[in-house]
Amino acid sequence: MQTHTPSPAATGYDSSLNRVTAIATAHCLTGCAIGEVLGMVIGTALGWSAAATIALAVALAFFFGYLLTSIPLLRAGMAFGVVVKTALAADTASIAIMEIVDNLVMLVIPGAMTAGLASPLFWGSLVFALAVAYVAAFPINRYLIARGRGHAVVHAHHGHH
Questions:
Q1: ∠ CA(30), CA(134), CA(146), 5° rounding?
Q2: Distance CA 41, CA 37 (A)
Q3: How far apart are CA 93 and CA 146, in angstroms?
Q4: Which of 91, 97, 110, 132 has an alpha carbon within 20 to 30 A of 138's alpha carbon?
Q5: What tens digit of pLDDT does each residue of 81-91 get?
Protein backbone atom coordinates (compact mmCIF):
# COMPACT_ATOMS: atom_id res chain seq x y z
CA MET A 1 0.00 0.00 0.00
CA GLN A 2 1.42 3.30 -1.04
CA THR A 3 0.61 6.46 0.85
CA HIS A 4 0.74 9.88 -0.64
CA THR A 5 2.45 12.64 1.27
CA PRO A 6 1.29 16.00 0.00
CA SER A 7 3.97 18.41 -1.14
CA PRO A 8 4.72 21.42 1.09
CA ALA A 9 3.13 23.63 -1.57
CA ALA A 10 -0.07 21.57 -1.51
CA THR A 11 -0.36 21.89 2.27
CA GLY A 12 0.26 25.61 2.28
CA TYR A 13 3.44 25.06 4.32
CA ASP A 14 5.59 26.90 1.79
CA SER A 15 3.35 29.96 1.74
CA SER A 16 3.02 29.88 5.53
CA LEU A 17 6.79 29.51 5.92
CA ASN A 18 7.36 32.35 3.47
CA ARG A 19 4.85 34.54 5.34
CA VAL A 20 6.50 33.86 8.71
CA THR A 21 9.92 34.44 7.15
CA ALA A 22 8.82 37.72 5.57
CA ILE A 23 7.51 38.96 8.92
CA ALA A 24 10.62 37.81 10.80
CA THR A 25 12.93 39.39 8.20
CA ALA A 26 10.96 42.65 8.32
CA HIS A 27 11.19 42.58 12.13
CA CYS A 28 14.94 42.10 11.91
CA LEU A 29 15.20 44.81 9.26
CA THR A 30 13.38 47.23 11.57
CA GLY A 31 16.02 46.87 14.29
CA CYS A 32 18.83 46.99 11.74
CA ALA A 33 17.36 50.05 10.05
CA ILE A 34 16.97 51.96 13.31
CA GLY A 35 20.60 51.30 14.21
CA GLU A 36 21.90 51.72 10.68
CA VAL A 37 20.14 55.04 10.08
CA LEU A 38 21.10 56.36 13.51
CA GLY A 39 24.73 55.32 13.03
CA MET A 40 24.92 56.75 9.50
CA VAL A 41 23.31 60.01 10.61
CA ILE A 42 25.60 60.41 13.64
CA GLY A 43 28.76 59.46 11.72
CA THR A 44 27.89 61.66 8.75
CA ALA A 45 26.86 64.63 10.91
CA LEU A 46 30.12 64.40 12.86
CA GLY A 47 32.18 64.08 9.68
CA TRP A 48 33.57 60.67 10.66
CA SER A 49 35.36 58.43 8.20
CA ALA A 50 33.38 55.78 6.35
CA ALA A 51 34.97 53.07 8.53
CA ALA A 52 34.06 54.78 11.81
CA THR A 53 30.54 55.54 10.59
CA ILE A 54 30.01 51.94 9.48
CA ALA A 55 31.38 50.59 12.77
CA LEU A 56 28.92 52.73 14.73
CA ALA A 57 26.04 51.81 12.41
CA VAL A 58 26.78 48.08 12.74
CA ALA A 59 27.06 48.25 16.53
CA LEU A 60 23.76 50.14 16.77
CA ALA A 61 22.05 47.78 14.31
CA PHE A 62 22.95 44.78 16.46
CA PHE A 63 21.91 46.64 19.62
CA PHE A 64 18.49 47.66 18.27
CA GLY A 65 17.93 44.33 16.53
CA TYR A 66 18.50 42.44 19.77
CA LEU A 67 16.52 45.02 21.73
CA LEU A 68 13.42 44.68 19.55
CA THR A 69 13.53 40.91 19.96
CA SER A 70 14.11 41.15 23.72
CA ILE A 71 11.36 43.57 24.72
CA PRO A 72 8.37 41.24 24.12
CA LEU A 73 10.20 38.34 25.74
CA LEU A 74 10.96 40.40 28.84
CA ARG A 75 7.35 41.57 28.94
CA ALA A 76 6.29 37.90 28.81
CA GLY A 77 8.19 37.41 32.06
CA MET A 78 11.21 35.54 30.75
CA ALA A 79 14.44 35.73 32.73
CA PHE A 80 16.99 38.21 31.37
CA GLY A 81 19.61 35.50 30.73
CA VAL A 82 17.14 33.41 28.72
CA VAL A 83 16.09 36.49 26.77
CA VAL A 84 19.70 37.31 25.87
CA LYS A 85 20.37 33.74 24.67
CA THR A 86 17.12 33.68 22.71
CA ALA A 87 17.78 37.03 21.03
CA LEU A 88 21.32 36.00 20.11
CA ALA A 89 20.07 32.72 18.64
CA ALA A 90 17.22 34.38 16.78
CA ASP A 91 18.91 37.42 15.28
CA THR A 92 22.66 37.07 14.92
CA ALA A 93 22.80 35.46 11.47
CA SER A 94 20.12 37.72 10.03
CA ILE A 95 21.60 40.93 11.42
CA ALA A 96 25.11 39.95 10.32
CA ILE A 97 23.97 39.30 6.74
CA MET A 98 21.93 42.50 6.65
CA GLU A 99 24.82 44.57 7.96
CA ILE A 100 27.39 43.10 5.59
CA VAL A 101 25.15 43.58 2.56
CA ASP A 102 23.80 46.97 3.60
CA ASN A 103 27.23 48.46 4.21
CA LEU A 104 28.77 46.93 1.08
CA VAL A 105 25.97 48.48 -0.97
CA MET A 106 26.56 51.86 0.68
CA LEU A 107 30.28 51.58 -0.06
CA VAL A 108 29.85 50.69 -3.74
CA ILE A 109 27.38 53.47 -4.54
CA PRO A 110 29.61 56.36 -5.61
CA GLY A 111 29.37 59.26 -3.17
CA ALA A 112 26.80 57.63 -0.86
CA MET A 113 29.06 57.63 2.21
CA THR A 114 30.21 61.20 1.69
CA ALA A 115 26.87 62.71 0.70
CA GLY A 116 25.47 65.03 3.33
CA LEU A 117 22.38 64.36 5.40
CA ALA A 118 20.36 66.72 3.20
CA SER A 119 21.32 64.78 0.08
CA PRO A 120 18.80 62.58 -1.71
CA LEU A 121 21.79 60.41 -2.69
CA PHE A 122 22.48 59.60 0.97
CA TRP A 123 18.88 58.72 1.83
CA GLY A 124 18.13 56.96 -1.46
CA SER A 125 21.29 54.88 -1.15
CA LEU A 126 20.46 53.97 2.44
CA VAL A 127 16.91 52.90 1.58
CA PHE A 128 18.15 50.90 -1.40
CA ALA A 129 20.90 49.27 0.70
CA LEU A 130 18.39 48.24 3.38
CA ALA A 131 16.05 46.78 0.74
CA VAL A 132 18.89 44.72 -0.74
CA ALA A 133 19.84 43.60 2.79
CA TYR A 134 16.27 42.38 3.37
CA VAL A 135 16.39 40.29 0.19
CA ALA A 136 19.79 38.89 1.16
CA ALA A 137 18.69 37.91 4.69
CA PHE A 138 15.38 36.30 3.65
CA PRO A 139 16.87 32.94 2.54
CA ILE A 140 18.89 32.39 5.73
CA ASN A 141 15.89 33.33 7.87
CA ARG A 142 13.72 30.91 5.89
CA TYR A 143 16.29 28.15 6.25
CA LEU A 144 16.58 28.69 10.02
CA ILE A 145 12.83 29.01 10.65
CA ALA A 146 12.12 25.84 8.65
CA ARG A 147 14.48 24.01 11.01
CA GLY A 148 13.03 25.49 14.21
CA ARG A 149 15.87 27.97 14.62
CA GLY A 150 16.32 31.70 14.15
CA HIS A 151 13.09 33.58 14.72
CA ALA A 152 11.28 30.28 15.26
CA VAL A 153 13.03 30.23 18.66
CA VAL A 154 11.46 33.57 19.56
CA HIS A 155 8.00 32.50 18.38
CA ALA A 156 8.24 29.39 20.55
CA HIS A 157 8.52 31.71 23.59
CA HIS A 158 5.65 34.08 22.75
CA GLY A 159 3.05 33.99 25.44
CA HIS A 160 5.48 32.41 27.95
CA HIS A 161 4.62 33.29 31.54
A1: 100
A2: 6
A3: 15
A4: 110
A5: 999 998 998 89
